[in-house]
C-alpha cells in the first residue's frame, strides 16, 4: 500500500523548483560547456585573502571572537547596520538624517533574497497585486507565486520601467476597484537582472510620486532591489529611488554583499520605512531569529579596514573586461542579422539578447537544444515574464550572464551561440 498523500499546504503546492535550476544543472553536468546561464560571480575574484585576514583578526581577540560566534540579534549587528546605512547615503551624496534615517531602519538578512520573501509574508494575502517590470528577476517570480500574488508587469524601455504605463495601469486598477489589492511595486533599478538596464535619473523621483498618488487608502510601497548597484563599469552612479523618499515612508531599499563581495557570506541589507521594521523582524524571528552573526562580523571588519571598498574596485575592473568582451563578440557575430538586438549594460552581470519573433529561445523551442549541442548555455527569457492579458509570453529573448566565463570563453561562447542559430534565420 503506498502511503497516504502528504498534507501539503496551498503555499507548498503553489511552490515549485525554480525553472532556471534545470539550466544550472545542465551547465554542471555538460563537460566543456560555456555557461552564460547562472548569475554566479566569478570564483577567481572571491576575496579569500581578505576574508582570511578578517577571520584571523576576529578570532585573535577573545571578546570579538565571543561576540562573533554567539547568536546575534534578529535585526542584525548594529555596527554593520550603521556602516551599510552610511555606505548607501554616501553613494547618494546625503547624510542619513537628510532622509530621517538611523541604523534602526536597517535590517540585515540572509541574502537579499530573504527580505524579498519576508516582505511578501508581511504584506501579501493571496490575490494581492504586485507590479513588476517586464521582464523581471526570475527568482522573485517564484517567490511571488509561492505567496499567491497576482503579478502585473509593466513594460520597460531603454530607460527602465515605463512610468507612463505604470501610471496607466494604476489608473485602470483604481477604476475597477482593484487598487485596494495593490501592495508593492518591484524594481531592479540598477543594471537589472535580467536585462542589464537601469532606471534613468529623471524617472526615480517620479516613481515615488506615482506610488504616493495612488496611496489613497493604504501605502503602495516600492521595493527597490539595488543588488547590482556597485557593479558599475561606466558613468556616474545614479541616485537611489530611496533618495526621493524624504520621510522614509514608501521605499524599501534592498541590496546585498553577494554580488560585490561574496555570495558565500549570504548577507543582505535593507532600509525600511520605520513602521515596517517590527513586522519584518517579527517574521524574521520565526524564520531564524537572526542571520549568520559570524558573516556579519566578517563583513563589518571588511568595511572597517577598507578591504571591501578595494575589492569592489577590483571587481569593477574584472567585470568591465568581460562586459566589453561580450558586447564586442555580439557585435561581430550578430550585427549582420537584421532584427537581432542586445543591451549594452553599464554594470551588473547580464546582457539581454532579443531575436526576431520567429526564433523560439524557450525551453521547448529548437534553439536551446542546438545551443547545448554547440557547447553554450543561456537562460530563456520567457522565465522573466508573466503572461500578458492575452496569456502571451515573449519567447524570442535570452539572458546572457558574463560573470563566470573568461573573456576568451565569452568570445567562443557567443560564436557557438551564433553557430547554434544557423538554419533558423529567415
Ligand atoms: N535580487 C536580484 C535582482 C538578484 O539577482 C539576486 C541574486 N541573483 C538577489 C536579489 C538575491 O541575492 P542574495 O540573496 O544572494 O543577496
TrEMBL record:
Its cofactor is pyridoxal 5'-phosphate. InterPro entries: Aminotransferase_I/II_large, Class-I_PLP-dep_aminotransf, PyrdxlP-dep_Trfase, PyrdxlP-dep_Trfase_major, PyrdxlP-dep_Trfase_small. Residues 35-417 form the Aminotransferase class I/classII large domain. One of its GO terms (molecular function) is pyridoxal phosphate binding. Coiled coil: none annotated. Gene3D superfamilies: Aspartate Aminotransferase, domain 1, Type I PLP-dependent aspartate aminotransferase-like (Major domain). SUPFAM superfamilies: PLP-dependent transferases (SSF53383). Keywords: Aminotransferase, Pyridoxal phosphate, Transferase. It holds the Pfam family Aminotran_1_2. One of its GO terms (biological process) is alpha-amino acid metabolic process. This is Transcriptional regulator, GntR family domain / Aspartate aminotransferase. It comes from Fimbriiglobus ruber.
Amino acid at each position: 500500500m503506498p502511503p497516504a498523500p502528504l498534507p501539503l499546504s496551498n503555499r507548498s503546492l503553489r511552490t515549485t523548483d525554480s525553472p532556471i535550476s534545470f539550466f544550472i544543472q545542465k551547465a554542471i553536468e555538460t563537460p566543456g560547456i560555456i555557461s552564460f546561464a547562472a548569475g554566479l560571480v566569478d570564483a577567481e575574484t572571491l576575496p579569500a585573502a581578505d576574508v582570511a585576514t578578517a577571520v584571523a583578526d576576529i578570532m585573535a581577540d577573545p571578546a570579538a571572537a565571543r561576540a562573533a560566534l554567539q547568536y546575534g540579534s534578529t535585526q542584525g549587528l548594529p555596527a554593520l547596520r550603521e556602516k551599510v546605512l552610511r555606505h548607501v547615503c554616501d553613494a547618494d551624496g546625503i547624510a542619513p538624517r537628510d532622509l530621517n534615517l538611523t541604523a534602526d531602519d536597517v535590517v540585515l538578512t540572509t541574502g537579499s533574497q530573504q527580505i524579498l520573501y519576508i516582505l511578501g509574508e508581511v504584506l501579501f494575502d493571496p490575490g494581492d497585486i504586485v507590479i513588476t517590470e517586464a521582464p523581471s528577476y526570475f527568482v522573485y517570480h517564484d517567490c511571488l507565486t509561492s505567496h499567491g500574488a497576482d503579478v502585473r508587469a509593466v513594460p520597460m524601455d531603454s530607460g527602465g520601467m515605463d512610468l507612463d504605463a505604470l501610471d496607466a495601469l494604476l489608473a485602470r486598477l483604481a477604476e475597477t476597484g482593484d487598487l485596494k489589492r495593490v501592495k508593492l511595486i518591484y524594481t531592479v533599478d540598477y543594471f537589472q537582472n535580467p536585462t542589464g538596464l537601469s532606471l534613468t535619473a529623471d524617472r526615480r523621483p517620479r516613481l515615488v510620486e506615482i506610488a504616493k498618488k495612488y496611496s489613497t487608502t493604504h501605502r503602495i510601497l516600492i521595493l527597490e532591489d539595488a543588488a547590482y548597484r556597485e557593479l558599475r563599469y561606466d558613468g556616474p552612479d545614479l541616485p537611489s529611488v530611496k533618495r526621493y523618499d524624504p520621510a522614509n515612508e514608501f521605499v524599501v531599499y534592498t541590496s546585498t554583499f553577494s554580488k560585490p563581495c561574496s555570495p558565500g557570506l549570504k548577507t543582505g541589507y535593507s532600509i525600511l520605512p520605520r513602521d515596517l521594521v517590527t513586522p519584518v523582524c517579527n517574521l524574521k524571528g520565526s524564520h531564524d531569529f537572526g542571520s549568520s552573526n559570524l558573516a556579519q562580523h566578517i563583513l563589518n571588519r571588511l568595511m572597517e579596514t577598507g578591504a571591501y571598498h578595494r575589492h569592489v574596485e577590483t571587481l569593477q575592473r574584472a567585470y568591465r573586461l568581460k562586459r566589453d568582451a561580450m558586447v564586442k563578440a555580439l557585435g561581430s557575430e550578430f550585427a549582420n542579422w537584421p532584427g537581432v538586438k542586445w543591451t549594452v549594460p553599464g554594470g551588473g552581470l547580464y546582457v539581454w539578447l532579443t531575436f526576431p519573433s520567429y526564433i523560439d529561445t524557450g525551453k521547448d523551442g529548437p534553439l536551446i537544444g542546438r545551443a547545448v549541442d554547440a557547447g553554450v548555455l543561456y537562460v530563456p527569457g520567457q522565465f522573466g515574464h508573466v503572461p500578458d492579458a492575452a496569456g502571451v509570453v515573449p519567447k524570442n529573448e535570452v539572458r546572457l550572464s558574463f560573470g563566470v566565463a573568461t573573456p576568451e570563453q565569452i568570445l567562443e561562447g557567443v560564436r557557438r551561440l551564433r553557430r547554434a542559430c544557423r538554419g533558423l534565420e529567415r
